[in-house]
Design a protein that fits this description.
With 117 residues, this protein is of the alpha+beta class. The protein contains four helices and six strands. The N and C termini lie far apart (30 Å).
Length: 117
């Protein structure tokens, strides 16, 4: 997956926005003001930090050397994913899972507005 495709996929999720609170080199993708993905899109190799259920995070890290505890993040809840070393389909699923976890923690009215009960 290219940086452009990763960015487009993140922004294609309902109500997702791109922000740059850490400087112009780091894209932070948010929904309702809450971060679900963080990436330096110009970095090589391309990596993205994604939120993950802690039990699933451990399993993914054991199965895929390209998935490690989140760099500069809460390592229990965040993974750093090396995008180029994984199939595009898996990367998309991980991004969607991260988005869904963040949405699940939002107030009910916000979730309903996003069509995500």
């Amino acid at each position: 997956m290219t940086p452009e495709r990763l960015r487009a996929f993140c922004l294609g999720l309902n109500d997702a926005v791109e922000d740059f609170p850490f400087g112009p080199e780091t894209s932070v993708f948010k929904v309702a003001g809450k971060m679900f993905a963080l990436s330096a899109l110009d970095a090589r190799p391309l990596t993205v930090n994604l939120k993950c259920d802690p039990e699933i995070a451990l399993r993914l890290r054991a199965q895929h050397p390209a998935i490690v505890p989140g760099w500069h993040m809460n390592k229990r809840h965040w993974n750093t994913v090396t995008v180029s070393e994984l199939p595009d389909r898996l990367v998309r699923e991980l991004v969607e899972d991260s988005y869904d976890l963040v949405v699940a923690g939002l107030p009910k009215a916000t979730r309903l507005r996003l069509d995500r009960p």
